[in-house]
Design brief:
This protein is about 45% helix and about 15% strand. The protein is an alpha+beta fold. Strands 1-2-3 form a three-stranded antiparallel β-sheet, covered by helices on one side. A two-stranded antiparallel sheet has the order 4-5.
Length: about 180
């Protein structure tokens, strides 16, 4: 099966030192190319990758599979220092899970931390926006809020009291009962 070089994972960044854009490709970590613009760097790295694939094909060597097409079994071998291993095992025991479950949860939390933070940031913006609306509705008339004149105010309820003897609280107009 032939893979298209378009399917590889390319990365482009600007290098102050080189005063150029540097392009790399994840599947060929030893390759790079530069260009005066991101587009030029991208075209340059594609040419380099194409040449590398041709050489590997001519030498009948394996051509790296694009990351997007790789299958993962879910098993990895992980080397830890004895102290880190001990601390992780103790923490897993304290949390009532296996060491494997504990390490998996740590990795997943770290992997998804950025997306979770982004969601939290969006929620904070929404909440802050709602708070601004609420603040606008509760400003005093001397702050010249156009909504103030239309809103109900505490002085509008001076002649009302809450009947707390009934399970469902009822608000009654005291001035009308006395009349």
């Amino acid at each position: 099966m032939k893979n298209s070089i378009e399917e590889y994972e390319y990365h482009i960044s600007y290098s102050e030192e080189d005063a150029a854009y540097i392009a790399t490709v994840a599947e060929f970590p030893y390759l790079s190319a530069d260009g005066s613009s991101p587009a030029a760097a991208y075209e340059a790295i594609k040419s380099v990758v194409e040449a590398a694939v041709d050489i590997l094909r001519d030498e009948q060597k394996d051509i790296p599979l694009p990351l997007s097409k790789r299958e993962y079994k879910g098993n990895i071998s992980l080397r830890l220092s004895p102290e880190t291993h001990r601390m992780a095992a103790i923490q897993a025991r304290q949390e009532g899970c296996s060491l494997n479950q504990f390490l998996t949860s740590l990795i997943e939390r770290n992997l998804y931390a950025d997306s979770i933070e982004a969601v939290i940031d969006k929620l904070c913006l929404i909440i802050n926006g709602q708070l601004k609306v609420t603040d606008n509705l509760t400003q005093r008339p001397n702050q010249q809020n156009p909504f103030w004149a239309k809103a109900s105010h505490s002085q509008d309820f001076e002649n009302y009291e809450v009947d707390t003897t009934v399970p469902e609280q009822r608000i009654t107009n005291v001035s009308q009962e006395e009349a």
